[in-house]
Every structure is written in structure tokens, then in C-alpha cells.
Specification:
The complex is a heterodimer of chains A (about 500) and B (about 110). By secondary structure, chain A is mainly alpha-helical. Chain A contains 22 helices and 7 strands. In chain A, helix 14 links the parallel strand 3 and strand 4. In chain B, about 35% of the residues are buried. The chains are: A mainly alpha (about 500), B mainly alpha (about 110).
Chain lengths: ~500, ~110
């Protein structure tokens, strides 16, 4: 557990609305991107001299381009419904982490330059000029928002703070004041093909190692194919699935599912990343450029289907925007949705009885499911409303005898963010990550105490990495977090599994 | 950006203390970086750091946690081939802390 100089908030039985502590998180601001991180994305290397003018110009640009952005800035009536809905407010008590407080940081500037009242009577309507201080405040508080959209569920006008955060970050980038974490990572995708910076030969070596591991565990030769021409499925998965725990256990689950169902599949070394941080920084251009890699890989490899691995925001980009970003997909097999989620694939195969499952292999686990924000509130899965909630749960229940949901109001469309989404999953933001995880940890603690829950299952690489880091702050083991397909991997019985052992024992008997 | 002084010479490091020009790495740097974080490097630490260096030289990236634990397990015995052992050595996370001392780039992304 990292050494820190802040206190982990105390967990309550029922989350109590904290009294405001103004300014309690104003010191939190991520590292600023340097020229080497900014320029490959098409942004100025450092804060431009005439930033006042450029900020207003860029804001005007976005207002013209995105109708929703203007509506969100105009329509707030300060009703207060959102004030206690943000996990970062609940964990920090800083009123600028109330969704309305956060929106107002940008709304005040919008009013000054784009509304009649703000132009002529700025003080009356809380309008303010652009200044370096304003940008510093934006850099701080718009990186205390994980763009999880929970507040928008409770806003009677549907104001989406995520859109405002994205716009704020896009404006900051455009004047040379970006965030190091996101921008450095996007640069790595352009240069190497994934967020991690994992080159092709290293990826190949890692996948070979996984084949050995599955062979050791099961005695079955399960392939992890790379750049296989003519495979049926292109699997696009977060690069964390090749690197981190428990992500990699999920990847082993996908491989076993494809193997058991006899579906030929491949990973692409060119599009070895599902994540698309272009969304976090609100940059359509970068988001598009990243998505185009998937199109190129699919065409070059001649696949018929595209399946996404467990990654929350990637699924939002894929489900909601892939067609406009990188379509048309007329060269793929029209029998399958484009794209398809790995959970849809597994779910379908389970329903058709094509997977041999031994649930008892997960009997030592009592899992609960953490709905990842971008899957829950910004996309869907399958062909029915609410499929994004039901399909993961049905898959988990199909491979586990024990399953417990966390309290209503903390799951499904009201799910709490893990605390590390939206480009905040970086060590320089550890304090806000730990504090923002408070509501989720309270709900998790409740089911561990009342229902004997042993593990929390997620379908997002960010959630998995975030929980690994923050669970110990709340007194839980870092390995309590699991991948959904890790449970599938445990329970799936492969054809020929354990036969070597049987042969050996027969041989020894003879 | 800061610097770290090793054997009388200054080297550039980033905000989190990672070496900026990776080709400048020398073993003495690891000891100094570790001391800064109240960590005394023993032979057990160096087994990990040396493996990281070897892997990096071949693949230009840090190994996945699983690759690292497997390699350590093969070399030092199965009881040490797990992430618990690595976290005992590098409590801030073997991936990040050990990479820093070994002069490897910090793993980025959703890890």
C-alpha cells in the first residue's frame, strides 16, 4: 500500500451526507502534460500566451458543435438534486465536487462571454473572466470528476457533468494545459499501439506464457492467437489484460470460451488496445484516430466479427460511437452485432448449452458485482433494455452458486464509480481516488458483513486496477477484486481437461 | 522535473522520480532511489531488479506481473513465485516501484 499523507475517510453503515468543507481538495491537481505529451496529439506544448482569448474561442467552437453542451450550461435551476450524488463529494466534502459546483466552474465563464446578462451585469449572475487562476481551478476540479454520469441520472434536466468535464479538458488541452497521464498514454497508442506501450514481441511473449499457464492448469492446449489472418473474431481488449492482475485472469477466461466454442479468434498487435482515452479528454479527433486503428486491424486481418473485452469506457466508445468514428462495418458478418461484448458472446454460448460449466469450482467465492459506470449509464448490452445489468449477472450466476447484489441505489444505473475512472487512475491523484471510492467501499463492506461476500467482480480494466490499489485503504485484501471472466475461467470444463492426469494414474495402476 | 545525484553526477528525473533518459541508468542509482523511499536494497531486491533489466533489454517494456512472478518462482523456488513475495520486497507495487529503481519506464494505462 502506498505511503500517503492524507486520511482514508471512515466508512459509515448508511452513507451520511457530509457537511461541506470548502476548499478541502483544492490542492489536488494532476501533473501537467509537457510538450512531448501534448504535441503528438495536436495540442500546443505549453500554455499559450493569449490563452484568455483562445479559451473563449474554443468554448464558442464547442458550443456551436455540441448542442447538448450549451443546453447543459443554460438549463441548471440550482434545485440541489445532484448535490449528494457525486462519490467525490461524498468522499471529500468539498462543495466544488458537488456536480452543480463543478459545472459552475465552467458555467461562470460561459455566462461572462456568451450570455446577455453575463456580458453586462457579470456580478449579478456569477459570471467571471478567464484567468490563469480559473484555468488552475479547472485543471484541479475537472480532474476530480470521473465522468461517470451518476449525477445526470438524478438531475431533473438530465444535465451531464461528464460532457462539461470533457469540454473543460478539451479547452485546457487546446491552450496547452493538458493532463500528463491521459495525454502521455494517447501518445503511446499512436506510437506503439496500446496504452501500456507494449511492443509486438513483448505481447507475443506474454501470450505464449499464458498458453503455458493454461496448459499447466488444465492439460489442454488453448491458443492465444496474435495477428492471425482470416480468424473469425478480432478481440479488442484493454492492454491491461496482457499485463496486470486480475485483468489477465479475465483474458484467460475469454480464451477458454473461444476455445470451448470452437470460435477462431485473434488479437491484433496493431490494435492491441480497447481503451480510448480520447473520450476522457473530450477530443473527438484523438478518439477517432484511436478508433481507426481497430478498423484497419479488422480489414487487414479479414475478420468477420469484432468482440470487445472487459473495459468500461471502451465499451461506451464502441457501443455508442464506433459506427460514426470508424464505420461503416459492411465488410463484417451482419449476423452479429458490431461490436459485440465478450459477455454477450459468453452469455449466448451458455444459453445455447455450448459451454461445459462446473459451478462448484467457484464454491469458495461469494461474489458481488460492481456495475462499471460507462457500461451501466452510457451503453447497453444484448438486445433488451437493461441488458448491460442482466447479462453480466446472468453470466456470473451461471458459473457461481453464490451471488449477492450490493444495496439498491448503489448498483445498476445508480452505481457508484470505482473512484478511478475518466483519466484519474494515476498515482498523482491517489488521494481523490481513495476518497472517491468511499461510497462503493461502504456498500461493499455491508455485503461482506451481512452476506459473507468474499469478492467484488468488475468488467472494466480501470475498476480492476483502481480496486487493487484502494481496497487495502479500507481494510480489504487487494486480491478481493476479480474479473468476471476469471469466474468463467475457473468454472469452464474444457474438453480433454485433466486427461493427462487420468492417463498417468491409469498407467501407474497398471 | 528534478534531479538525482549519483556518484557526484546529476541525472534528470520526472515528477515521480523516474529516470528521464533511461540509457543513463547505473546500478548505484537504484540504491539511492530506494534510500529516498526508506527501502534498503538486498540481494533479494536485486534478483528482481536484474530480471527486470534483462527483460527490458529484450522487450523494451517491463514484464507483466505474471511473467515476473513466474520467472522469480523458477529461479528462487515456488514459494517466492507470487505477488505477495514481490509486494513484501516492493510495498508500493512491484510493477511501479521496482521499475523505477531498475531504470525502466513506468507502466502506464489501466494498471
Amino acid at each position: 500500500m502506498a505511503k500517503v499523507d492524507f486520511d482514508t475517510p471512515e466508512m459509515q453503515e448508511v452513507s451520511i451526507l457530509p457537511k461541506i468543507k470548502p476548499g478541502s481538495m483544492e490542492h489536488s491537481s494532476p501533473f501537467v502534460a509537457k510538450d512531448i505529451h501534448q504535441e503528438p496529439l495536436g495540442f500546443p506544448g505549453e500554455l499559450v500566451e493569449n490563452f484568455e482569448e483562445k479559451v473563449v474561442e474554443k468554448m464558442g467552437d464547442l458550443l456551436d458543435k455540441y448542442r447538448g453542451f450549451r443546453v447543459f450550461l443554460d438549463s441548471c435551476v440550482k434545485c440541489g438534486a445532484c448535490t449528494d450524488k457525486c462519490h467525490y463529494y461524498l468522499g471529500t466534502s468539498d462543495p466544488k465536487n458537488m456536480p452543480v459546483g463543478r459545472q459552475d466552474l465552467l458555467r461562470s465563464v460561459y455566462r461572462r462571454y456568451f450570455t446577455f446578462a453575463g456580458k453586462y451585469f457579470p456580478k449579478l449572475v456569477g459570471a467571471r473572466d478567464v484567468s490563469k487562476e480559473v484555468l488552475d481551478e479547472w485543471h484541479s476540479y475537472f480532474h476530480q470528476c470521473s465522468q461517470c454520469r451518476r449525477c445526470s441520472v438524478f438531475c431533473p434536466y438530465g444535465i451531464d457533468t461528464a460532457e462539461i468535464s470533457m469540454a473543460a479538458r478539451e479547452i485546457l488541452d487546446s491552450v496547452g494545459y493538458g493532463q500528463k497521464y491521459c495525454n502521455e498514454i494517447i501518445g503511446k497508442v499512436f506510437k506503439i499501439g496500446n496504452n501500456l506501450g507494449l511492443p509486438g514481441p513483448a505481447l507475443e511473449d506474454t501470450l505464449e506464457g499464458l498458453e503455458e499457464d493454461v496448459m499447466d492448469d488444465t492439460g489442454v492446449e488453448v491458443k492465444f492467437p496474435l495477428d492471425v489472418q482470416g480468424a473469425e473474431v478480432l478481440l479488442v481488449t484493454p492492454s491491461a489484460d496482457f499485463f496486470a492482475e486480475p485483468h489477465i485472469d479475465g483474458l484467460m477466461g475469454y480464451a477458454k470460451v473461444f476455445h470451448a466454442a470452437g470460435i477462431s479468434w485473434t488479437i491484433s498487435s496493431y490494435a492491441s488496445e480497447a481503451a480510448n482515452f480520447g473520450m476522457f479528454i473530450g477530443s473527438y479527433d484523438n478518439m477517432r484516430k484511436i478508433s481507426q486503428r481497430i478498423r484497419k486491424a479488422a480489414m487487414d486481418l479479414g475478420v468477420k466479427r469484432i468482440v470487445f473485452g472487459e473495459c468500461g469506457h471502451a465499451w461506451r466508445v464502441a457501443y455508442s460511437f464506433l459506427n460514426t468514428l470508424a464505420g461503416p462495418w459492411d465488410f463484417l458478418d451482419p449476423k452479429y452485432p458490431v461490436p459485440q461484448h465478450i459477455l454477450e458472446v459468453t452469455h449466448g454460448l451458455i444459453q445455447e448449452g455450448k459451454l461445459n460449466i462446473d459451478k462448484s469450482r467457484n464454491d469458495d467465492i461469494v461474489p458481488t458485482f460492481h456495475d462499471s459506470c460507462n457500461v451501466a449509464r452510457a451503453s447497453r448490452m444484448g438486445d433488451k433494455p437493461g441488458g448491460q445489468f442482466e447479462i453480466p449477472r446472468e453470466v456470473i450466476k451461471a458459473v457461481c452458486n453464490n451471488y449477492v447484489d450490493m444495496a439498491p441505489g448503489t448498483t445498476h444505473e445508480a452505481t457508484f464509480c470505482c473512484g478511478g475512472g475518466g483519466g484519474l487512475l494515476t498515482d498523482d491523484l491517489m488521494e481523490i481516488r481513495v476518497k472517491g471510492a468511499l461510497p462503493r467501499m461502504e456498500a461493499y463492506k455491508q455485503v461482506t458483513e451481512n452476506n459473507g461476500v468474499t469478492n467484488i467482480v468488475a468488467i472494466c480494466a480501470i475498476c480492476k486496477a483502481q480496486f487493487t490499489k484502494i481496497l487495502p485503504f479500507y481494510g480489504f485484501g487487494m486480491d478481493a477484486i476479480m474479473s468476471a471472466h476469471q469466474l468463467v475461467s475457473n468454472a469452464i470444463v474444457l474438453e480433454g481437461e485433466g486427461q493427462d492426469d487420468a492417463d498417468e494414474s491409469e498407467a501407474s495402476e497398471a | 522535473m528534478g534531479t538525482i545525484t549519483v556518484e557526484g553526477k546529476e541525472y534528470e528525473v520526472d515528477e515521480e522520480g523516474y529516470l528521464v533518459n533511461l540509457s543513463e541508468w547505473i546500478p548505484a542509482m537504484a540504491d539511492i532511489m530506494a534510500k529516498d523511499e526508506d527501502c534498503e536494497l538486498t540481494d533479494a531486491h536485486w534478483e528482481v531488479l536484474n530480471f527486470l533489466r534483462e527483460y527490458y533489454e529484450e522487450y523494451q517494456i517491463a514484464p507483466a506481473v505474471r511473467v515476473l512472478t513466474k520467472a522469480i518462482g523458477k529461479k528462487l523456488g515456488k514459494e517466492k513465485g507470487n505477488s505477495k513475495y514481490l509486494y513484501e520486497l516492493f510495498p508500493y507495487g512491484p510493477g511501479k516501484q521496482a521499475c523505477k529503481y531498475a531504470g525502466l519506464p513506468k507502466p502506464t494505462g489501466c494498471v
